Amino acid sequence: MSSINITVIDREGNRTEGVEWKDFESLMEALTRHKYPILATCGGNASCSTCHSYLDQGSFAKANEINDEEEDLLDMLDDTRHDTSRLSCQVEWSEDLDGAEVTIAPEW
Ligand code: FES
């Protein structure tokens, strides 16, 4: 098993470095395992958007691509959608994401 470390900024602006992300987890699964308040009501199926997060620019470019399903849901977020928005349940583990900075998006 491999793991990488990411930095997470929660909805209160608290920044935590060294948050472990294991290779069999989606980003959402890593965040919920660390008890970040992500509801993930759809269970990671790209249909609820409660796992919305922002990646840093570099990591956004390195992450797996956004598929049509995710794109449709991100489109509905309107003003909370930024350039680097992702549904964290759709972000796949990759060694390239070591050191990524993930900001949990506001609740809608
Ligand atoms: S957990 Fe529902 S869209 Fe990601």
From TrEMBL:
* Example of a GO MF term: 2 iron, 2 sulfur cluster binding
SUPFAM superfamilies per the record? Answer: 2Fe-2S ferredoxin-like
The domain of life for this entry's organism is: Bacteria
Q: Name one GO biological process term.
A: P450-containing electron transport chain
- Pfam families on file: Fer2 (PF00111)
Looking up InterPro entries in the UniProt record yields: 2Fe-2S_ferredoxin-like_sf, 2Fe-2S_ferredoxin-type, Adrenodoxin-like, Beta-grasp_dom_sf
Indicate the segments forming the 2Fe-2S ferredoxin-type domain, all copies. Answer: 4-108
Write the record's keywords in alphabetical order, separated by commas.
Answer: 2Fe-2S, Iron, Iron-sulfur, Metal-binding
- Reported cofactor(s): [2Fe-2S] cluster
Protein family (similarity comment): Belongs to the adrenodoxin/putidaredoxin family.
Its recorded name reads: Ferredoxin
The organism of origin for this protein: Kocuria turfanensis
